[in-house]
Amino acid sequence: MRPFRADFPQSDLDDLKRRLSDTRWPEGLPEAGWDRGVPVDYLKDLAEYWRTRYDWRAAEERLNRHPHFTTTIDGANIHYLHVRSPEPNALPLIITHGWPGAVTEFLDVIGPLTDPRAHGGDPADAFHVVIPALPGFGFSGPAEAGWTTQRVASAWAELMRGLGYDRYVAQGGDFGSGVALVLGMQDPEHVAGVHLNTLVTAAADPSELEGLSEEDHARIARSERFTRVLSGSMKLQATRPHTVAYGLTDSPVGQLAWVVEKYKDWADAPTAPEDAVARDRILDIATLYWLTGTGGSSAQFYYESVDFLPIEANAGRYFPLSMPLGVAVFPHAPFKPVRRFAEREFDTIVHWNEYDRGGNFAALEQPELYVGDVRAFARLLKDR
Fold first, then answer.
1. How far is the C-alpha of 181 from the C-alpha of 177, rounded, in Å?
2. Residues 321/196, Cβ–Cβ less than 8 Å
3. N or C: which end of the chain has fewer CB within 10 A?
4. Paired sense of beta strands 349-354 and 325-329, if any
5. CA nearest 66: which of 133, 13, 129, 8?
6. How far apart are CA 247 and CA 104, in angstroms?
7. What's the CA gap between 281 and 259, in Å, rounded?
8. Taking Cα atoms as reference points, which of 224, 252, 270 lies closest to residue 365?
């Protein structure tokens, strides 16, 4: 396990600015707000901010405040943050990001999670935090074919064993929720509980739709809208990830549009992505994808994990867990689970909280709610 430090050469940053200056912009697109994707005027403004005002070195400094490492697991380079709590009885916690996600999503929650005493909390709520980057994402870099959700979960179990953790909590949202669930299924002797801020549910047959509340029907309609309207990137990356890779690797504006659209469509952002997440935090992620050249390689995870995606008939169908499950529901995520369907799939749900704000990127959008929910779930595990 090798110490790691983020430090891109200045030539890479200069090249990014040059490419942004030389962008060939589309002309004559219909004015449609966000209905047809990212508006040209919005993206021009954001790209100019990226070129002239955004400071990647400040982002590197934020990253490097925490201990980073790389290791090789099953032939892949795995980058991860490992931040131990000052509290000796802290509970280990492994957090998995999704797409378009990165380890930078969690920088603001590391302090409260690892050192609640210093953040006005109860030291009994402390965690030792491990945040790995999925193979093919960010500093984990490109990975060979075959890195399915199941294989990632197996790698995470090996990572936690290597770090000496015998009992830990698996947490995830977006793709990370699938990894956390499979990790619990694969490593039940060591996973004390699974906490999710994304859970896809679906009716097993039409009879399950009878007697549902108006709110539950609205949740089903929201999921259907995602599949019908908001899932273009998912379908393309799940079927033709190579085709996507060229534009993402050659054009920073193409990469930026591919990422920023999701902060409008999948977050609590009624008018613009910045309603949900500060533009510097969005640009941290877009820049990390760009500098590591992993826009194309990250898309491969959709192809490898197609069985878990809501374009398949079995989406929302899982295998049973033997350990406690906690669910945090943020209303503006692409999916709001129907509790009746969730309890049909899992009989170990011990924690279910619904919030009135927040979306798919919970740790970025609502860090206090995210931390509070993870803490509340972990307290339920103390007597088990």
1. 6
2. no
3. C
4. parallel
5. 129
6. 23
7. 12
8. 270
Residue 201: DSSP 8-state: -
Exposed, middle or buried: residue 108 (CB in 10 Å: 0-12, 13-18, 19+)? middle
Cis peptide leading into 100, omega within 30 of 0? yes
Rounded Cα distance between 108 and 361, Å, is 13
| pLDDT reported for residue 354 | 98
CA atoms of 242 and 295, how far apart (whole Å): 10
Instruction: Return the C-alpha torsion angle 66, 72, 76, 79, nearest 10.
Output: 0
**Is residue 73 classed as helix, strand or coil in its secondary structure?**
strand
**What is the residue-wise DSSP string for 35-47?**
TTSS-HHHHHHHH
pLDDT score, position 201: 93
Q: What is the reported pLDDT for 131?
A: 99
The candidate with the shortest Cα–Cα distance to 184, out of 325, 353, 370, is 325
CA distance 264 to 255: 15
d(CA 117, CA 125): 9
Cβ–Cβ under 8 Å, residues 95 and 103 = no
- Lookup: tokens for 32: 């449609």
Rounded Cα gap, residues 194 and 35, in angstroms: 36
Look up residue 204 and give its DSSP letter. S
Spatial separation of the C-alpha atoms in residues 277 and 264, rounded to whole Å: 10
What sections of the chain are H helices per DSSP?
A: 10-21, 40-52, 56-64, 107-114, 149-162, 175-186, 214-225, 232-239, 241-250, 252-265, 279-292, 295-304, 339-345, 362-365, 367-381
Edge-to-edge strands of the sheet including 127-132? 2-4, 68-73, 76-83, 127-132, 91-96, 168-172, 191-196, 325-329, 349-354
pLDDT at 248: 97
Alpha-carbon distance values, 276 to 86, 195, 259 (Å)? 32, 22, 14
* Rounded distance between C-alpha atoms, residue 180 and residue 194, angstroms: 6
Weakly modelled stretches of the chain, pLDDT under 70: 310-317, 384
C-beta separation of 145 from 304 below 8 A: yes
Closest by alpha carbon to 70, among 175, 162, 169?
162
